Amino acid sequence: MDCLFCKIIKGEIPAKLIYQDDKVVAIDDINPQAPHHKLIMPKKHIATLNDLATADNELIGHMVQVAKKLAKDFNIAEEGYRVVMNCNAGAGQSVFHIHMHFLGGRPMMWPPG
Ligand code: 5GP
Ligand code: ZN
User: Fold this and answer.
1) Which one from 36, 37, 99, 101 is the annotated catalytic residue?
2) Which residues span the domain enclosing 90?
3) Atom 21 of ligand 1 has which residue's CA nearest to it?
4) Any idea what the CATH number is for the domain that residue 15 is in?
5) For 67-84, b where at least 16 C-beta lie within 10 A, e where not — what string?
6) How many distinct structural domains can be found in the chain?
7) How far is it, in rounded angstroms, from Cα 37 to Cα 42?
8) 57-113 confidence digits (pLDDT tens)
């Protein structure tokens, strides 16, 4: 399968690995939009949020728990951080393997662009 993030997960394309366990990987975003900009993704290939099955609920919950852990590790849990998942091109999804953006280390505006 020609998927950039599957290749990163397999180690075929280099990336700065921040965290991994049996279910997920977290890497530095190549084009950071904040002092802390990480991508938390499942090892399993799922193209978009629309492809999630009910059986993936635990996996998505686990990704949120990893975001919580990163915030604690970066010491930004109290000041605040943002998690974002873009679904399909109209929302800005450019890599079709689901991933949670973890953004922190600066004030976040609302609404996002
Ligand atoms: P999306 O636009 O799909 O929500 O987010 C994709 C993210 O992947 C973007 O923030 C982009 O900077 C990042 N990205 C694209 N290509 C690479 C890459 O080769 N390595 C890493 N680490 N991040 C990438
Ligand atoms: Zn993939």
Assistant:
1) 99
2) 1-56+85-113
3) 30
4) 3.30.428.10
5) beebbeebebeeeebbbe
6) 1
7) 17
8) 999 999 999 999 999 999 999 999 999 999 999 999 999 999 999 999 999 999 998
